[in-house]
Specification:
The chain is α+β, with helices and mostly antiparallel strands. It has one domain. The chain has helices at residues 4-36, 46-59, 71-81, 88-91, 98-106, 170-182, and strands spanning 118-120, 133-137, 153-157, 162-165.
């Protein structure tokens, strides 16, 4: 018959080992989460941004936001135009903390390039070529702020569609966009 003290020691060793294993799993899970969501999990939604941009264009003679010092500042006009529909969470992109953007727009200031995670293409109209890119996430993150495995980007197009451009096709896509914008022949 085993001594009561020996059984107690075995049980403690088993509990310590289980605790170490669980702590290791938790640390590994946290590490994976930090890698997968480099800026934290967010839902600065591409589809909502596309909808807000189309609504803005409907109210402004077909023009998407434009005319400010930077494209990001122009994108801020979405909030000024309709703060009940457009939030700091939406215009911040997926890389900038919402509180930072909220404080800035609450003071009546527009976003700077550092304060906005979206790459916004200024000077486009809702009736332009539907293949033209209107915006994409600067960091190339997925729908909830997750890292994309191939370096691609989700892109919002002038017509409101969202498309995925794989990393291997990104440079060709940017070249095509430059050609499409050049074909607009707008006065400078």
């Amino acid at each position: 018959m085993a001594e009561p003290g020996a059984a107690m020691r075995r049980r403690r060793k088993w509990l310590v080992a289980a605790g170490v294993i669980l702590a290791g799993l938790a640390a590994a899970g946290y590490g994976w989460h930090c890698y997968q969501y480099p800026y934290g999990r967010s839902h600065s939604c591409d589809k909502q941004l596309a909808g807000a941009l189309l609504q803005y264009a409907d109210r402004h003679g077909g023009w998407f936001p434009q005319g400010e010092a930077t494209p990001e500042a122009s994108l801020s006009l979405l909030y000024r135009d309709d703060p009940s529909w457009v939030s700091a969470e939406l215009i911040r992109g997926k890389t900038v903390p919402a509180e930072v953007v909220q404080d800035r727009i609450a003071r009546g200031e527009l976003l700077s390039p550092e304060m906005c995670g979206w790459h916004y293409v200024e000077g486009l109209r809702a009736d332009d070529d539907r293949r033209l890119a209107l915006f994409w996430d600067k960091a190339g993150l997925g729908h909830n702020g997750e890292r994309l495995s191939d370096g691609g980007h989700y892109v919002g197009l002038v017509g409101g569609d969202i498309t995925y451009i794989p990393g291997a096709e990104w440079e060709a896509f940017l070249d095509e966009q430059q050609q499409l914008r050049a074909a607009l022949n707008r006065p400078k």
